[in-house]
Design brief:
The protein has 283 residues and is an alpha/beta fold. 43% of the residues lie in helices and 18% in strands.
Length: 283
């Protein structure tokens, strides 16, 4: 009888431990443990939420949708994403209004390969609640021009094409740590123009966020974590336009041990989501 009791207790203990396994934890910029509620509470007091993601991470995409749903009960929202380019705003608006189908959107907009699994749920939720969803990114072909020939290549574009990016000339600080590191890693092979191409994206996303913000509403923006890490990128450009804007940033990192934040990630954002490196990738 005692052996059966011990077996049952052991099984219960092992099951409980398995149940307590977590795929992510949240920390603040100082490496102290934070909670999901801390993110929601901070976002309620902010003008902009920059949600930095890993594009292929299933856990962070799930969290993006959960945060969106929870905040939609508490704040008026405007949404925006790096994954949608500004010259496709017309098609996005048509889809949100029910004027075109998903199939038509697929064929007329340059959607990312993982759109249906990772971003469609966000857009569809916006459609359901009639929330504006802004395509904030510079068309990729224009960022490619900058990479090849510098900012000067954009001067030759038409007025319509220039309307799909931040007004020229872009303010640019090559000494910002993120851009400086990017140039150093590239060395002499396109090293000078790669951070400029990155800046063309950051400046444009910040421009369309600022342009489409609404009074007393939160602008929630989805972007690769590197576009807002260390309070640079989009965050820096928004602050150049309006030093008093209230921004909360989220960074995503991956670790084998999620029990504590690794030192290299300290200060990366207001909140750092640490995801188990074994989490499923969406592509």
């Amino acid at each position: 009888m005692r052996s059966i009791f011990v077996l049952l207790m052991t099984s219960f203990f092992l099951f409980s431990n398995a149940q307590n396994k977590q795929s992510y934890k949240i920390f603040n910029k100082n490496g102290k443990k934070a909670s999901y509620s801390d993110i929601i509470n901070s976002a309620q007091k902010s003008d902009v939420l920059l949600f930095g993601e890993y594009h292929d991470n299933s856990v962070v995409h799930w969290l993006e949708l959960k945060v969106l749903k929870d905040l939609s009960d508490k704040r008026d929202l405007v949404l925006g994403a790096e994954m949608l380019e500004a010259d496709n705003q017309k098609q996005i608006n048509q889809y949100l209004k029910g004027e075109i189908t998903q199939k038509k959107l697929d064929s007329t907009a340059r959607l990312w390969p993982n759109y249906k699994t990772d971003y469609k749920p966000l857009v569809d939720y916006a459609k359901e609640l009639k929330i504006d969803f802004i395509a904030t990114n510079i068309p990729r072909r224009f960022a490619s021009l900058v990479f090849k020939n510098g900012f000067e290549a954009l001067d030759k574009l038409s007025q319509e094409e220039k309307s799909w990016m931040a007004p020229l000339p872009f303010k640019y600080d090559a000494n910002l740590p993120g851009y400086s590191k990017m140039a150093q890693e590239m060395g002499g092979h396109g090293g000078e123009n790669l951070p400029k191409a990155q800046a063309s994206k950051d400046a444009t996303m910040a421009y369309f966020i600022a342009k489409n913000r609404k009074e007393n509403a939160l602008f929630m923006h989805y972007n690769g974590s590197y576009h807002s890490d260390n309070f640079e990128g989009i965050n820096w450009y928004l602050k150049q336009q309006n030093p008093n804007i209230k921004i909360v940033t989220i960074a995503t990192v991956s670790q084998s041990d999620i029990s504590k934040l690794e030192p290299e990630y300290l200060g990366k954002a207001n909140f750092i989501i640490v995801i188990d490196e074994d989490a499923t990738k969406t592509y």
